[in-house]
Amino acid sequence: MSSRREFLHRGLALAATLSLPPARFWSLSTPLLSKSDADLLDELCASSFRYFWEAADPYTGLVKDRSNADGLDPRTVGSIAATGFGLTALCIAAENRYEKRSKIEERVLRTLKYFHDRALQEHGFFYHFLDIHTGERLWNSEVSSIDTALLLCGIITYREYFTDERIRRLAGDIYRRVDFRWMLNGAQTLSHGWRPETGFIKFRWDSYAEHMMLYLLAIGSPDFAIPPESWSAWKRPVYDFFGESYISAQAPLFIHQYAHAWVDFRDRHDRFADYFQNSLKATRSHLKFCVTLADQFPKYSEQLWGITASDSAHGYVVWGGPPSMGPIDGTVVPAAAAGSLPFLPGECLAVLHHIRQQYGGRCWKRYGPVDAFNPNNTWTNPDVIGINVGISMLMAANLRSQFVWKAFMKAPEIKAAMQQVGFKMG
């Protein structure tokens, strides 16, 4: 126990002496990027799009949960969360001409028709895991509230970006029929989901997590809106680490990223927090936490840090910190830094440049960075995971041009919901 305590004290002392560069914080304008920064972001977006184009069934639009990082993968397990990121990826691709716009619009229409007419659903919510070709429910998965929200964010981005009236009508119909009141199941907070065999899942979105977009979608729903008071009903525990005080949970870093991929929280606050600044503080705290582990894992540094839910040498792990969670073994997850690009641009870009330059042959494949790798040994994940590819691509696009924010925030339902729950500018 004494050696563990000494290790902790050494780590805290190291964190206290860190001379991190000032955060390149930005308000409503894009920060200045060097040519190498801009080129790296473009490469990240283009390779990520390649995943969402190739790892999706062209007729259902369902995107694989994961794939081999070099492509040519026979697995057919699809995820509606990965599909939500993938729908947004198509918009980014159309804007940047990564593929012909006509082909992208054709894929968009097929995807919307599939979810409108054929996809398995309950009260408008969709099952978490489906076969990408047949749409069959897999792994006895739940009708998921959070994963349906991620899917809806992609669908709404479609609706606001493309001008085709067929796209706009189908997307609007899919959103309107989601019965958020049903998912409350008689309480103020939303359930995690429902299974036909057992009914509603007992866990609720009742404390800070990645769910802010779920509540805004529910409060802004045209036909099944839940009360604005539900926004205040979930807890917001405050954590203090490394000189940072912020709302958080004992959960991976992605909880501070996902809602921000679509919802532009910059220069806005409710009576509880400025959530953009909150995620900035959480990211800075995570960076310092990783650097304190350098005594144990020498490759961790200000240029190489980041742990969020990912694969490991021993399977999928929900890990991160602070506080430390999971069997941390020196693995680096590129999506931790890539998914935080808008919060700490300089620090996160430094990580991606370092990985590209020092580990590119090993860790940068057809679809961009592998999901995870351990720089302290030879372990390299052969896969990429759709949601980690997705958060990396969307945040890169937001840092580069605010693209996703600009498209998604046109949605009148989101504007109305933010007004109803008390968001103010400044």
Characterize the structure shown:
The protein is mainly α and 426 residues long. 46% of the residues lie in helices and 11% in strands. The protein is built from 16 helices and 18 strands. Strand 4 (121-122) and strand 5 form a beta hairpin. Helix 4 (101-117) runs parallel beside helix 6 (165-176) and helix 5 (145-161) runs antiparallel to helix 6 (165-176). The longest helix is centred in the N-terminal third of the chain and has 20 residues, at 35-54.
- Which class in CATH terms? Mainly Alpha
Total number of domains: 1
Tell me the radius of gyration.
20 Å
- What is the overall silhouette? globular
CATH architecture: Alpha/alpha barrel
| Most strands sheet | 3 strands, antiparallel
Q: Low-confidence parts lasting 5 or more residues at pLDDT below 50?
A: 1-28
Biggest sheet strand order reads: 1-3-6
- As a percent range, the share of strand residues is 5-15%
Distance between the termini: 47 Å
Helices and strands in order:
Elements: H1 2-17, H2 35-54, E1 63-64, E2 66-68, E3 77-79, H3 80-96, H4 101-117, E4 121-122, E5 125-126, E6 129-131, E7 143-144, H5 145-161, H6 165-176, H7 180-184, E8 193-195, E9 199-200, H8 212-219, H9 229-233, E10 238-241, E11 244-247, H10 258-262, E12 268-269, H11 275-292, E13 310-312, E14 315-317, H12 334-338, H13 345-363, E15 364-365, E16 368-369, E17 383-385, H14 386-401, H15 403-408, H16 412-420, E18 424-425
Antiparallel strand pairs: 1-3, 2-17, 3-6, 4-5, 7-8, 8-9, 10-11, 12-18, 13-14, 15-16
